[in-house]
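We modelled the chain as a single entity of 163 amino acids. Its sequence is:
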Amino acid sequence: MTRLHVKWGEANVKLTWLANGGMPDVRLVTSVHSFCFYKDQLLLVNLKHRGWDFPGGHIEENESPEESLHREAMEEGYVSGNCQHIGCIMVDQTENLIWNENGKYPLIGYQAFYKMDIEKFHAFKAEHESSQRIMVPLNRAGSYHHDWNKIYEEILAEAIRLK
């Protein structure tokens, strides 16, 4: 279990990687993310507001985490494939002095992470948040990603173990 304190804007948030755990109450899962693999390479997308990242985003109303994951992979990376849940990052806002109980994020929430084996690359249209997609060697992911950290390193290692 890896734990990390981060600053998101003005917020101080504690992140904890929970590998191989079950899915928490879906109402507490605020976003889904995927490490998408094809031939020992990892898909990264260039998000217009953030830089290079892996596909993911917020769950829409009446959408399951898996449905959200497939939608986000298509919207941002224009890929489809089989996915497997590998764990969650617990997002703990208890030390966040500006957390708002009436805001859209719970005091303790979760980001669900999946491993996707890409089966099909669709035509890249850049219609949504991403402007580009690239495949990078697994050992170079951290040098591309806009905010790589030790939790992402552990998630990548867990996803590789599942191959």
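As a brief sanity check on the tokenised model: The chain has one domain: 3-161. The CA atoms of residues 142 and 153 lie 8 Å apart.
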